[in-house]
Amino acid sequence: MRAYKPSELTQLKRNLSQRRWRQAILLRGEQAWCTEQLSYLQQDINEPWYVLSTNEQLSHAQWPTHLHQILGQEHANAAYDCFSGFFADKLAALSGTVSAGGLLVIMMPEDTSHFVDPGISKLVSYGYHTPATSHFWTWLEQQLSNTQFINVCQSDSLNALRPNWPTIHSETFASAQQHQQQVIERIKAVAKGPENCPLLISADRGRGKSSALGLAAAHLSGQAIILCAIQRRAVSSAFKHLALARGLREPDDHIHHLDNLTYMPPDRLVQEQPQCDTLFVDEAATLPIPILKTLLKMYPRVVFASTLVGYEGSGRGYTLRFKKFLDKHYPSHSESLLHIPFRFANGDPLEHGISRLLALDSACNELALTDTSVVHKKISVTELLTKPELLKQVFALLVLAHYQTSTNDFRQLLDAPGQQLFITLHKDQLVGVALVMNEGGFDKGLANQIARGQRRPQGHLLAQSLAQLAGKGAIAQLHSARIVRIAIHPDAQHLGIGTALISYIEMACKRDHVDILGTSFGAYGALVQFWQRLGFHSLKLGFKRDHVSGEHSLLMAKALSNEGDAGLGPIIKQWQRDATYILPHFFANIGGDLTAKLLSENSDIDSENDDMEPLCRFARGELAFIHAFAPLMRFTSNNPAVLEQLDEQQQRLLAQLKTKSCTQIEHKHSKKQFNLLLMALVQSVIAQRL
Question: 631-652 burial by CB neighbour count: b if 16+ within 10 A, else e?
Answer without folding.
Answer: bbbbbbeeeeebeeebeeebee
